[in-house]
Amino acid sequence: MINRNEADVGLGPFALSYDRFLAVKATRPMYINYNTILVNYQNQKTDFYRYVYALQWEVWFGLVASLIIVSFVSLVSAYFMNDRDRSKLSFLNFLDHFTRMYGNIFSQASSVDINYNHQRVLRAFWWMAIIVLMQSFSGHLLATLVLDSNSQINDLRSLDRSGVLPGVEKGSVAHSKFKSGEDLHSTNLYSKMLQQQNKSLLPVKQLISDASLDLVKAGKFAVILDTLAVKYALSNRYNKGRECGFHVAAQTFHRNILVMVLRKGLAKSTYHQINSRSYSQPCSRISFLVESNILSKSINNKVKEYTKCLGTHVNKSYLTVEDLRGIFILLCSGLLLSFIIFLGERIHERLNTS
User: Fold this and answer.
1) Is 320 helix (H, G, I), strand (E, B) or coil?
2) pTM of the model
3) Span 263-286, average pLDDT
């Protein structure tokens, strides 16, 4: 409208770009704004199986296989060192060796004297492997329990890796920044946008519409927009009583200088009154708006409810019952297994005595 001489002043505020700078006159900066990423808030869920997942299944398999192999080698060694006594190759003797090696995993020393150096070497390396493995397990488990391990999107890098479809305002400064490909992640994200232009490159009204925010809430879409627009959208959504639980990324990028715009050809006196400082006019209209906090208060009143639409997250330095419920399940499973083995051993003893 200003370009067509239908208006003299555009209150905006508008993000200043090169094309706009050529088309209109820009006032002093009113506000410095940044782009950010709006995504769904990822709740951290306590998973019982993470106690097992502290080590990959290949590691657990390797541990069991190593236990069997070391027990078998120890059995064969005893056979050859005892004049090849076939009684030493019985299944019960194997279980005896297996039990000793198994006990080492839980830091139980062997009650049998070791008389040969090759057995000492075997046992020493077995102990070394057990110590390293158990320390790795306990260290990783502690980090998993205490530190927040959720995969929350907080920057362009994590957004690129997430596979979530990004959306940006079509024709905006952010659109131009992604198009220019300032880094690898920006290039990758812009490629995804081009593949689904009708869903990714949208007017700002569509980006902050309830339909788009519903997709964000479902974890299928991420809105890349200036922080003011994001806060306004969240505040408006909260006031309408719609489902919330969003996350604003920690990273900010693509600084935007927000200004009012004036029609070229406007009287110089009008331009100076709105924009310029002078000896006779120490405070321009723009300066007054900024320095009196009228502008910032007006903005804050429009977006004051946005925090209520964010997901909640507490940085904790302690563990709760919910965090440790898995270990109690493991304990109950161990008690049940121990009882079954106890019954088997009692039956075995009765059969031997009879």
Assistant:
1) coil
2) 0.56
3) 75
CA distances from 26 to 3, 9, 299 (A): 13, 10, 20
Opening angle at CA 20, ends 15 and 32, nearest 5: 20
DSSP per residue, 150-189: -----SHHHHHHH-PEEEEETTSHHHHHHHHT-SHHHHHH
Exposed, middle or buried by CB within 10 Å (0-12, 13-18, 19+), for 32? exposed
CA distance 125 to 2: 81
pLDDT tens, position by position, 207-221: 999 999 999 999 899
d(CA 297, CA 153): 30
Residue in the block written with tokens 């078998």? 72
Separation of alpha carbons 315 and 303, rounded Å: 25
pLDDT at 316 over 50: no
Convert the pLDDT of each residue in 118-134 to its tens digit: 777 877 887 888 888 88
Q: To 10 degrees, what angle do helices 91-105 and 117-146 make? A: 50
Cα 8 to Cα 27: distance, rounded to the nearest angstrom: 13
CA–CA separation, 331 vs 48, rounded Å?
Answer: 12
Q: How far is it, in rounded angstroms, from Cα 307 to Cα 45?
A: 22
> DSSP letter at 257?
E
Helices (H), the chain: 18-23, 50-53, 57-81, 91-105, 117-146, 156-162, 173-180, 184-195, 197-200, 204-207, 210-217, 227-239, 268-275, 285-291, 294-303, 321-353
